[in-house]
Specification:
By secondary structure, this protein is α+β, with helices and mostly antiparallel strands. 19% of the residues lie in helices and 32% in strands. The protein has two domains: 111 residues, Rieske [2Fe-2S] iron-sulphur domain (Rieske Iron-sulfur Protein, 3-layer Sandwich), CATH 2.102.10; 201 residues, Naphthalene 1,2-dioxygenase Alpha Subunit, Chain A, domain 1 (Alpha-Beta Complex). It has an eight-stranded antiparallel sheet with strand order 11-17-16-15-14-13-12-18. It has a four-stranded antiparallel sheet with strand order 5-6-7-8, with no helix packed on it.
């Protein structure tokens, strides 16, 4: 049974994914969505199924503020999904097309990021929360990598935040080795719909940070349902790594990693950084594929010690969000300020 986070904003893409006058199909949490942009530049999102004979609206075209179905030419308003025209009807036909509509989804384009709101109520709901605030993600990313993970959303999320697998899964001279493991103490703080590893100097066994020079600090933040940011600052310059996992269905999850920066030195080593980031993510993909061999037997997983605390937090935040929506009250973040101690 699906256990997706609902009544929340999901990442749908970046601005350059949707050109004016174009549409394409995405799937989030089992919902087929037609993501498009009007010829005047406004983004829209509607269910990618025509209510007539179920053709995908994303394969049609945009005409005068409507989406035209490729099968019979029915047209639906991009803003409200209301049927605006049925070409096969004669003038004397009394069918009230205004009673026919396609579900539309609230959508926001914030900087370079596009977010779609999915509510449990199929009739739609006005969002009571805003998308994650990531101000530095406003320009075109200098690194953009996307692929499919063959695993459920929950496993992708906890793998994304897990600090203990690095020396084993990501064995690289430029990152970490098992021999470099040592005790760590990291301060964590609650954030709206998530938590953050407070700004700190990167670990001494993280060689990649040393390439940046200076005295870098980094802050890592998680936002429900599945966004992780790492904001690295060296003096007045910033590198933002944004990694987002989004459920396609019960068994597949997309992962997309974006880098934004105003740091010239990082741009100079961009080919090396791009290659390293791609290798890093694919190592995560490969271990999750191996993990699925065990997950198919539906075992009970263990969460042990501080190293697994972030995974536990994810599940309790997810539970509290669903409970607060059902009870019609404010979300109360169960994560409290604390220091986690583990080896990595």
């Amino acid at each position: 049974m699906s256990d997706f986070v609902m009544d929340i904003w999901y990442f749908a893409g970046i601005s350059k994914d949707v050109k004016p006058g174009e549409m394409h199909r995405i799937e989030i949490a089992g919902e087929p969505i037609n993501l498009g942009r009007s010829k005047s530049g406004e983004v829209f999102a509607m269910r990618d199924i025509c209510p007539h004979w179920s053709a995908p609206l994303s394969k049609g075209r945009i005409v005068d503020g409507t989406v035209e179905c490729p099968y019979h030419g029915w047209r639906f308003g991009t803003s409200d999904g209301t049927c605006k025209a049925i070409p096969a009807l004669c003038s004397e036909d009394k069918t009230d097309t205004q009673k026919i509509r396609v579900r539309t989804y609230p959508i926001r384009e914030v900087g370079a990021l596009i977010w779609v709101f999915l509510s449990k109520d199929k009739k739609g709901e006005d969002p009571k929360v805003d998308p994650p605030s990531i101000p530095f993600a406003k320009n075109k990313p200098i690194i953009d990598d996307i692929f499919m993970l063959d695993c459920p959303m929950d496993q992708a999320v906890i793998g994304l935040m897990d600090p203990a697998h690095g020396p084993f899964v990501h064995q690289n001279k430029w990152w970490r080795t098992q021999g470099s493991m040592h005790d760590k103490a990291k301060k964590f703080e609650p954030r709206p719909l998530g938590f953050a590893m407070a700004a700190h100097s990167p670990s001494s066994n993280s060689f990649a940070y040393k390439l940046l020079g200076g005295k870098p600090t980094t802050e890592i933040t998680f936002y429900l349902p599945g966004a992780r940011t790492e904001e690295i600052k060296v003096g007045k310059r910033t590198i933002l790594s944004l990694t987002i996992v989004s459920p396609v269905d019960d068994e597949r999850t997309t992962i997309r990693q974006l880098f934004f920066t105003d740091m010239l030195k990082f741009k100079m080593i961009l080919p090396l950084a791009r290659s390293g980031a791609r290798k890093f993510l694919r190592q995560d993909r490969d271990i999750m594929a191996l993990q699925k061999m065990g997950l198919k037997y539906n075992p009970k997983q263990m969460y042990v010690g501080d190293a697994d605390a972030q995974a536990r937090w994810y599940f309790v935040i997810k539970k509290e969000w669903a409970k607060s929506r059902a009870e019609g009250r404010e979300f109360v973040n169960p994560v409290k300020p604390q220091t986690l101690r583990y080896r990595s």
